[in-house]
Amino acid sequence: MKNIKQFLFLLAIVSTVLSCKEDVKEPLGKPDLKVTINDEIKHLFGDSLQFMAETSDEGVSLSTLKVQLFFDEEKVSEEVIRTKEYGTYEGKIYIPFLENIPDGTAKLKFVLQNISLTKKEKTVGLPLERPDFPYLNLIIDNESYTMQKVGDFEYEITDEFPLKIGAYIETPAFGENQSKINFGWTDNKVAIEGAEPIPFSNVTAGNYTIKFNTQNFSASPFLIGYSVNGQSLDRVNDDFYEKDIELKKDEEIEIEGIEDIEEWWIDPDYFLKKDEEGYAFNAMNGKYRLNFDFDKRYLSAEVMSGNHLAELNNDGTGAVWIIGEGVGKPSLSNEVGWDTDKAFCMAPVTEKVYRLTVVADQQINVEDINFKFFHQKGWGGEFTNSELDTDSEIVYIGDGDNDRDPGNLGLYEGKSFEAGATYEFILDLTEGRENGKLKINKIK
After folding, report:
1. In the prediction, which pLDDT does 276 show?
2. What is the dihedral of CA 214, 215, 221, 223, to 10 degrees?
3. Among the four given CATH numbers 3.10.450.50, 3.40.50.2300, 2.60.40.1940, 2.40.10.10, the one describing domain 32-128
């Protein structure tokens, strides 16, 4: 009986395996493919290649024709055509214009597949050349300047330009399809179809030369010409530059290259006007990020800890940030509000003591404020009424039941700041972060 059961069990397994084999379908059909491309013309980087493919099969419907372009073994372009019927299909595939790719033979692969997943592949070599433009167009504010060819892939123009300009570069139409290539600025480098203008700059405005290389995408000049204490500023975007720098109390600040700096609003909490020649640093020794906002013509500073913006430590050292309503720099038109990206940093006067200086009706609202102190530039730790006290007769600290959230500052009913007067907010954390003392002084 035992042997019979074992035999029946083995028979069941064999039957199952045979059944599974019957369910597996072998690929059907035999796709056939004939490819035609024009070998009598130059195929250029940045242009599109036209092709024609004759397709057929042995009674099985076709599915897709994939056309793939490879530089070495890297696929750089692909087109997919739905092949509903046997016949001839025409199309184009883009040949990328990439930096530092020499002339040579690329690989063009055609893959025809039917609905049974049977494939036919055909690969051809495609000789490619980098186009040799007779000139380039430099586009500045919709005005076009001609960049002359001065060498292999080298173009330049010399003219009267401002200290800094934003420009795009455009090629003339070329190739079988009369294509054009546009260069702009993306991720701090020149790029095809770059989202922003290329930020050319020179040490001074006037007659200088702009250059561009279509082989390696190198461009010049990027001299910026902006510096603080001899250190070049770092570009964030066209309107914003910054510099992380070590500074000392009363150290002279030399700003060079910003022609209208005298018209800027320079944050008095960090910079004290020294004389007609410059400024002195007005906060304690340390590392700071200086922010140069060319749009608002505004110079501000933020406390650093290593290579990052500082946060407030438990013992009261570090940095204090202001977020909220009724306060803004360089003016109330740039109110901080509850946008944490706009939070500004109180100046450390001495260790654990922080200062905010404002002029009523210019940087602080005369009759209504609703801002508070934070431990970082962003949401997270913040001061509440249990950690903060003041003896001010104008400003009170919210507790949640007095028309302000806990820690938010407000003005007593019937009280206001004097328009045009300068006020100093001093936050004293010498007894630690949980025992803050706020003083508000009218200093002029």
Report:
1. 66
2. 140
3. 2.60.40.1940
